[in-house]
Amino acid sequence: ATPVAIMVGNGVAAKTGILFKTAASLEQAGKTQIVALDKTGTITTGEMKVTDVIASEESSEKELLRVAYALESKSEHPISKAVTAYAAEKDIPLENTAEFEVLSGNGLQALLGSDRIYGGNLSYIEKIVELISSQNRSFIDKLAREGKTPVLIARNGKLLGIIAVSDVIKEDSPQAISELKNMGIHVVMLTGDNEITASAIAAQAGVDEVVASVKPDGKEAVIKQLMEHGVVTMVGDGINDAPALTSADLGIAIGAGTDVAIDAADVVLMKSSIRDVAAAIRISRKTLRNIH
Ligand code: ADP
Ligand code: MG
Asked: Which residues constitute the signal peptide according to the record (predicted)?
């Protein structure tokens, strides 16, 4: 790489708000064959909101929200923040819990008085409650098909109900993904969310492939698998994304993301739009052409 070509490429990139940390990262971007995008906070805004509250037959909305509030108020997860804000707005009383525990990538549990309370995804709650009625299963399925994340709340062995949370796809994500595909790049979405919700979001976004139910420590392994098929650029915003950003051939962090992700990345996008992923690759391709 000639220093002049690198300087020119970096100058163009900086004007767009794309920060290449090294000359090597500016050269690497153009070699990308596969782009792996984190879902929450990267393709979507990451600002989750409660959309549906469905108490099960033997519970009530008040009771469901009371238990959910006590549990979710203990966590900083985007799902927890959405549930907590919703319960506070509904003037639900906040009760104290003990023995609070996070089951990373699955949900939460704690002790409320003498009751064990749980909140999380279907595969986690299914192991705890005696029965999830076919009616509740069809609610869960319907919510997921709408691209929402169903959070199941249980107490002792019983399901109290379902709270759906959802965030929206960033306005320019579908266009950004279509640009990448037009550049001959294979686009994959990674998420800890369940398969049905993930597929609904993937269809809206237009990605080629989805890898769902990825555990927080599993993104790195997925990247290593993808690297067997081509040169991989990983794009993410969260603490969970840091090992994957480091392992990939190139790591791109969303500027509005966590410091951990920004530190782990080779490239930082100041405008937090994934259209700048395509722009970064294009600038690098031009830079490489000027060299050879
Ligand atoms: P993501 O990749 O979307 O950030 P996570 O790995 O954090 O997802 O979580 C995966 C899934 O585990 C969530 O979609 C949700 O179903 C469940 N989950 C995780 N944390 C919580 C929580 N605090 N409250 C309820 N459910 C949770
Ligand atoms: Mg994320």
From this structure: none
Give the model's pLDDT for residue 161. Answer: 98
Residue 15 has pLDDT above 70, yes or no: yes
The CATH T-level fold of domain 3-44+169-291 is Rossmann fold (3.40.50)
Backbone CA torsion sign across 258, 263, 267, 271: positive
pLDDT tens, residue by residue, 155-178: 999 999 999 999 999 999 999 999
Give me the interface pTM, i.e. the ipTM.
0.93
Given the CA of residue 119, which atom of ligand 1 is nearest to it?
A: 25
Residue 235, classed as helix, strand or coil, is: strand
**Contact call for residues 36 and 277 (beta carbons, < 8 A):** no
What are the structure tokens assigned to 149, written together?
């994340």
**In contact, 250 and 234? CB cutoff 8 Å:** yes
Q: Which ligand sits closest to the CA of 69?
A: 1
3-state SS, residue 66: helix
* CATH number, domain 49-166: 3.40.1110.10
Ligand 1: centre distance to CA 265 (Å): 23
